């Protein structure tokens, strides 16, 4: 392997480790989130403004949703034991609550997290 190829591989490995990949000129921020025991883990997601955020959301015990209101207007439901993957552009800075909006179990109302876009 040439020295240049080694450097490229090294950079790719570092990007993977940080959960970041690059598609074209866009930085893709990969975030793994689970809903389990009526809580999100992690409860706080931090990204940079204009990142393309790719969320892999897994509902471990029962069905849960990953919902953010304005400005992002995202509501994605994962069935029990299922994972879903979706993307959005974090084009507005600020702090935005995310929550589960399913009504099958009252305790879903306790599920709250925060998206921080810097
Ligand atoms: Cu829920």
Please describe the structure with a list of short key phrases separated by commas or semicolons.
single chain; 118 residues; mainly beta; Immunoglobulin-like; 5-stranded mixed sheet; 1 helix; 50% strand; binds copper (II) ion
Provide an overview of this structure.
Helices cover 13% and strands 50% of the residues. It is mainly β. The chain has one domain: Cupredoxins -  blue copper proteins (Immunoglobulin-like, Sandwich). The strands form two sheets. Strands 1, 2, 3, 5 and 8 form a five-stranded mixed sheet that branches. Strands 4-10-9-6-7 form a five-stranded mixed sheet, with no helix packed on it. The chain is globular and about 40 Å long. The N and C termini lie far apart (39 Å). About 10% of the residues have low confidence. Copper (II) ion binds next to loops.
């Amino acid at each position: 392997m040439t020295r240049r190829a080694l450097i490229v591989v090294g950079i790719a490995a570092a990007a993977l480790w940080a959960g970041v990949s690059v598609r074209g000129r866009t930085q893709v921020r990969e975030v793994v989130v689970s809903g389990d025991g009526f809580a999100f883990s992690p409860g706080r997601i931090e990204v940079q403004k204009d990142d393309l955020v790719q969320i892999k959301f897994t509902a471990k015990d029962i069905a849960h949703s990953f919902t953010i209101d304005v400005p992002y207007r995202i509501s994605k439901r994962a069935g029990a034991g299922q994972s879903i993957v979706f993307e959005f552009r974090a084009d507005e800075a600020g702090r935005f609550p995310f929550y589960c909006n399913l009504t099958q179990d009252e305790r879903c109302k306790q599920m709250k997290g925060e998206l921080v876009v810097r």
